[in-house]
Amino acid sequence: MAITLYSTVYCPYAWCTRAVMHEKGVAYSTVDLDPQQATQDTTQLLTSGGVVCKSIPAFVDDDVTLYESVVICEYLEERYPQPNLMGDTAVERAAVRSTLWDLNVRRTQPLAKLAAMLYYDRTTRDQECVRRQLRRWGAYLDELDEHFTANRWLALDRFSVADISAYTTVAVSRGLGANVIRGRRHLRDWLRRMDARTCVVASAPEEMPAVA
Ligand SMILES: N[C@@H](CCC(=O)N[C@@H](CS)C(=O)NCC(=O)O)C(=O)O
Fold first, then answer.
1. Which domain CATH number covers 15?
2. What local confidence, expressed as pLDDT, does residue 37 receive?
3. Which atom of ligand 1 has the smallest separation from the CA of 56?
4. If you take atom 10 of ligand 1, which residue's CA is the nearest one?
5. In sequence order, what are the residues at sequence separation of 6 or more whose Cβ sits closer than 8 angstroms to the Cβ of residue 180?
6. Nearest to residue 197, comparing CAs of 145, 151, 161, 172?
7. Which of ligand 1's atoms lies nearest the C-alpha of 11?
8. What is the span of the domain harbouring residue 15?
9. Predicted pLDDT at 15
10. In a domain, 185, yes or no
11. How far apart are CA 69 and CA 74, in angstroms?
């Protein structure tokens, strides 16, 4: 069995899947794609290995190719159940999935807009738009800070893939101009716990400093 993950260096979704594989002790290799290539229609992005990346990350496990970090994480959980990262009961799994979908589908929209403008150079730079998207993202960070006043972890009363997904996204958002920890003491404490986790350190992009 050979797992290959196709990614761009600072993709938070790819980082999340790498961290899950580290947490579960799964061997894998990565292929970093040129982010500028990804500005083209990613459905046409063909790697030198012949894998069509409909979106990034693309996950290849022998003859299985998967897209969407949540789908990849669910697949890894089923194939490698230990340690459990998705929840032990139907209710716990629903809580983790809700958090993942809320983050990936809704909350990260401002970051996608900022990345299109500042990282991929796909849209015209507009400072007012940048400020607006950073404010929207900041509102989510405020909600996280509030959540961590009363909770140690994000979706469950223990560490789960929701913590990994939120952490990698928050960490990468700093590269798009987000001021993550100022005035957010409880969020900072959670980020510190995450900064120290082996799976996070081992899977971080090169030259990525700890967040908190
Ligand atoms: N919902 C997707 C998000 C994937 C995504 O937005 N990937 C970015 C890289 S981090 C991408 O493909 N960007 C290139 C583009 O938008 O063309 C997931 O969780 O995997």
1. 3.40.30.10
2. 73
3. 12
4. 11
5. 141, 170, 173, 174, 187, 191, 211, 212
6. 161
7. 10
8. 3-79
9. 98
10. yes
11. 9
For the record, the structure tokens of 125 come out as 């730079």
Ligand 1 touching residue 17 (CB < 6 A) = no
Q: Do 57 and 94 fall within a single domain?
A: no
- Distance from Cα 55 to the centre of ligand 1, integer Å: 6
Shared domain for 103 and 174, answered yes or no, is yes
For atom 4 of ligand 1, which residue has the closest CA? 56
Q: Are residues 45 and 66 in the same domain?
A: yes
pLDDT, residue 152, reads: 98
Looking up residue 151, the CATH number of its domain turns out to be 1.20.1050.10
Cα 57 to ligand 1 centroid, rounded to whole Å: 7
Distance 88 CA to ligand 1 centre (A): 29
Q: Are residues 110 and 42 in the same domain?
A: no
Q: Are residues 105 and 192 in the same domain?
A: yes
Output the CA 44–ligand 1 centroid distance in Å: 14
Mark whether 17 and 43 lie in a shared domain: yes
The pLDDT assigned to 39 comes to 66
Matching residue, tokens 């409909």:
54
What pLDDT score was predicted for residue 175? 94
> How confident is the chain (212 residues) per 10-residue block, as mean pLDDT?
89 97 97 77 68 87 94 98 98 98 96 93 92 98 98 98 98 96 97 97 90 90
104 lines ligand 1 (CB under 6 A): yes
Look at residue 206 and tell me if it is in a domain. Answer: no
Residues in the chain, total: 212
Torsion of CA 200, 203, 209, 211, to 10 degrees: -30
Q: State which ligand 1 atom lies nearest to the alpha carbon of 57.
A: 20
Task: Provide the whole-model pTM.
Answer: 0.95
